[in-house]
Amino acid sequence: MASIRTESELKRVLEALSSLSERKLDSSSRVEAMELLTLSMPYFSALKRINRQIHTDVQSQKTRIGDERAKVDTARLALQNLKYEQAMLELEVKICQEFQSIFQDIQLHPLEEFQALHPDVEGDEHALMLARLKFELRERRRLEAEKHELQIDRSGVAKENNDKKVKLEQAEKELKDLLAAAHAVRDKFESF
C-alpha cells in the first residue's frame, strides 16, 4: 500500500517538475528562473524524501526476503535431513528383512508334532516360533544329558570288557603254562 502511494506521489512530483521545465524553456529572464527554482525546491525535497522512502522500502524488502529465504533454506535442509533419515531407515529395514539368522537353519521338530505335544501354545507366528525354539532347546539339552549318561555307561562297559579281556588273556596264559606242565609230567610218566 505504501509503495502504491509512493509511486503516485513520485508521478505527481515528476509531472510538476516536467511542467516547470517547460515553463523554463519559454522564459529567459533571471527573475523567472529564480522563481522557477524556488517553485521547484519543494518538489526536489519531495523527490529526496521519496528516494529515501524507496531506499528504506527496498532495504526492508531485502531484509524480509532474506528472512523468508532463510526460512525456506531451513525448511529445505530439514526436508533433506528427513529424506536422508527415511533412506537410512529404509536401508535398515531392508537389511533386517534380508538378515539370515541361525534359527532358520535349525532343524526343529515338525510343527504338527510340536502342536500335538503342546496344544496350549497359540498366538502369532513369532510367539509360536519362540515356543518351538525353547522346546527344541529343552529337547536338545535332555538328549545331550542322555548322551552323556550313555557315554559314561559305554566307558564303564568298555573298561569292564578290558578288565575281562586282561583276565581272559591271563587265564589263557596260565592255561597254556598248565598245559605245558601237564605235557612235561605226562612225558616223565611215559619215560618210565
TrEMBL record:
Subcellular location: Nucleus
Chief place of localization: nucleus
Pfam families linked to this entry: FmiP_Thoc5 (PF09766)
Biological process, per Gene Ontology: mRNA export from nucleus
Record-linked InterPro entries: THO_Thoc5 (IPR019163)
A single GO cellular-component term on record: THO complex part of transcription export complex
Keywords, in A-Z order: Coiled coil, Nucleus
PANTHER family (UniProt xref): FMS INTERACTING PROTEIN, THO COMPLEX SUBUNIT 5 HOMOLOG
Name of the molecule in the record: Fms interacting protein
